[in-house]
Amino acid sequence: MRHRLVVFLILLLILTSCSGDNDSVSGLQVQPYVRSDGTMGLSIYMMTSAAKDETMQMVVTDPEGNLSWSFNAEESKFDGKTYRGSSDISMPRGIMLPQGTWSVDVMFRDGTTITKSFEVSYDDDFDIPDTDSGPVFDSGSNLTFLP
After folding, report:
1. Burial (Cβ within 10 Å: 0-12, 13-18, ≥19) of residue 116
2. Do 50 and 139 meet the contact criterion of CB atoms below 8 Å apart?
3. Alpha-carbon distance 34 to 141, whole Å?
4. pTM of the model
5. Contact 76/82 with Cβ under 8 angstroms?
6. Closest Cα to residue 23, out of 58, 59, 53, 47?
7. 63 Cβ partners below 8 Å, 6+ apart?
8. Is the terminal CB of the chain with fewer CB neighbours within 10 Å at N or C?
9. DSSP string, 44-108
10. Contact yes or no for 58/85 (Cβ under 8 A)
């Protein structure tokens, strides 16, 4: 009887350690932005299979692999759906946001990591509009201007 219990516990441990197969990422939303002081940044959010309030980490890396941002993903609701990510990926003042193929590593609590690639592009010949009334999206430049 004791032998069966040990075998059962080992099988249970193996099955629960393979639960990462159910981890998923979808609906990736990325938007470059410019603050009124000229600082550029990036907002990245996605839907995941992580449980509500589950801590999940992300690492976002620029196209050259020289810059990376590591953070705990924040939850945000939009259109009745829960997204996770951050809008705090910010360049130093006076430095343009790199364009090209970026990557994000999404790390779940069980150790599973999912890597996604995404494109960042915008017209770098832009003028910062008046944003006193709130954020403004300019489809011509593909930039959101923030106060």
Report:
1. middle
2. no
3. 11
4. 0.79
5. yes
6. 47
7. 98, 99, 100, 101, 102, 120
8. N
9. EEEEESPPTT---EEEEE-TTSS-EEEEEPEEEEETTEEEEEEEEEEPPTT-PPPPEEEEEEEE-
10. yes
* Residue that the structure tokens 């959101």 belong to: 144
DSSP secondary-structure letter at 20? G
Give me the residue label for tokens 């996604």: 116
> Residue 9 corresponds to which amino acid?
L
| Dihedral angle sign, alpha carbons of residues 86, 140, 121, 49 | positive
CA distance 40 to 15: 45
Q: Are 32 and 120 in contact, with CB atoms under 8 Å apart?
A: yes
Residue type, 66: N
